[in-house]
Design a protein that fits this description.
Blueprint: E1 21-24, H1 34-47, H2 54-58, H3 65-74, H4 81-98, H5 106-115, E2 119-123, H6 128-136, E3 143-147, H7 160-170, E4 181-185, H8 188-197, E5 200-203, E6 217-218, H9 227-244
Parallel strand pairs: 1-2, 1-4, 2-3, 4-5, 5-6
Helix pairs in contact: 1-4, 3-4, 4-6
């Protein structure tokens, strides 16, 4: 499904959803950390006498870190899952402390949503120590809370990370439902997780191409996108869900 814009939004009705929250993926959506992850994986596998390349690394973009660690073990890394996760995370943290490349338009959209009173949360498969480094680099406290990979039993593509975020949002607003939320994602597992949770999902392909799917919107970039565009995507999702009933 191609990008819905504010001009394409269905005419407002009394039952139109209200954009109350936007749930952000981190790696590849908010910041371009994928090159750091890929380099760390290649270095680690090579150090253990195995072979790893960018193509293999790209196939794992968006996976839970436990999944990635298990695959690296199969590639010859003779470390525990915990040791592999720690090694990769520390390598990426070292990289972002030197340079943190934001994805085009991400900081601008985040700032506008925050200014319009839309609640924002980070939903990432990176662990809290890494995610906190990224959040600390922001000028303001845009994110109300973080849902990280070490805090869920089932990582993406399972819907648990997004369902947990919705549950947290409902603690202070019991009227909020998945229909009031939009998710921004760049990976196949991440998009699958968000779609399965029931939120309006906006896919922004980056490191890997994403297949077309009527269950989510696809934007080529966040650059130039606004609150109105996210609201339009939410309305389009609601209209599609209503038509399916």
């Amino acid at each position: 499904m191609l990008l819905p814009t504010a001009a394409d939004a269905p005419e407002a009705t009394n039952t139109a959803p209200t954009l109350k929250a936007v749930l952000w993926d981190m790696d590849g959506t908010l910041v371009d950390t994928e090159p750091y992850w890929i380099a760390a994986e290649i270095d680690l596998v090579t150090a253990h006498g195995g072979h790893w390349d960018e193509e293999k690394a790209m196939a794992m973009v968006g996976n839970a870190l436990t999944t990635t660690a298990a695959i690296l073990q199969d590639a010859g890394v003779q470390l525990s899952v915990r040791e592999i996760i720690d090694h990769l995370s520390h390598s990426v943290i070292a990289g972002i402390r030197k340079a943190l490349p934001w994805r085009p338009g991400a900081r601008e959209l985040l700032a506008e949503l925050h200014g319009r009173g839309v609640r924002c949360a980070l939903v990432t498969m990176s662990e809290r120590n890494l995610a906190s480094e990224v959040v600390k680099a922001l000028d303001e406290e845009y994110f109300e809370f973080l849902i990280t990979g070490d805090e869920v039993a089932n990582g993406k593509p399972h819907p648990e990370p997004y369902l947990k975020a919705i549950e947290r949002l409902r603690e202070s607003d019991p009227s909020l439902t998945a229909a009031d939320c939009a998710a921004l994602e760049d990976s196949i597992p991440g998009v699958a997780s968000a779609v399965a949770s029931g939120v309006a999902t906006i896919a922004i392909p980056h490191a890997v191409p994403l297949p077309e799917d009527s269950r989510h919107a696809t934007w080529p970039t966040l650059a130039g996108m606004t609150y109105d565009d996210v609201t339009a995507a939410l309305a389009s999702h609601a209209a599609s869900a209503g038509a399916a009933l």
